[in-house]
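re: ur question from earlier - yeah i can do the single chain one, its not a big deal. heres the input i used so u can compare w yours
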Amino acid sequence: MDVRTALDTIAADAARGDIIFPTHTDIALRVQRMLDDPDCAIDALGKLVAAEPILAARVLGIANSIACNPGGRAIGDLKSAISRLGFATLRALAASIIVRQMKEMSNDEEHRALAARLWEHTAHVAALGRVIARRVTRQNPDAAFFAGIVHEVGSFYLIARASAFPGLLAGDLEAWHGEGEARVGRAVLRALEVPADILAAMETLWSGFLALPPSSLGDTLLLADELAPVESPIDALAGMSRKGMDVELEVLIDDETLSSILAESAAEVASLSAVMKG
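and the output i got, formated as tokens:
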């Protein structure tokens, strides 16, 4: 089976809803469903989060990060941490558990190493997205953070399925970019029941078109992806990069350049990405 045929098979399976998720994501999915309940009680939510150690650590870590705790008042209990973060950020963190565990699905060491690198890229994009949303595009930082968490979910799923198609990730992955990535990404994101605004932002990312000046959630995601210090290894395998877009920084931001804003917020980005990678 050649690369294009394998990609078509994976995309078709995903489009039919034939999606394999990690086996240890039950609590993260339950958290997402509980958050959909308008009568969701924070006490019950805290108990459920506490049952997933990685999620609990993420909640406390982000709540005490520079981004969410500029005053330096540390929080040690989950109920207070959830109150500080809000439900939108908690939803993003629950999604991060599902995405992160997808990188453990393959038994192939090379594939797992590839997925680990992809997760590192994801953590940087999520952190950068939150900062860029607040300081540049004036979008909802929580939505940008969520978009960054899930923006490579199609690539994670590709790696998870690669062992069923020997040589897939060693071949020419040019066919992945464009409709291949979008077909798989859409299917997995819909299975995760992500909000419509996140799906729209992903369409902007897949198109690669950055508006000037950047103002949408999709523009936020594109900038974060371009500026992430760790590139997607799937992009590298496909000989494709979103870096190097012809962007005049002074056009993007009045009175300040994007580089100066990111320099000012370097500690915030480092704090967020460290929690997400940990």
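The domain at 3-277 is CATH 1.10.3210.10 (Hypothetical protein af1432). not sure if urs matches, ping me
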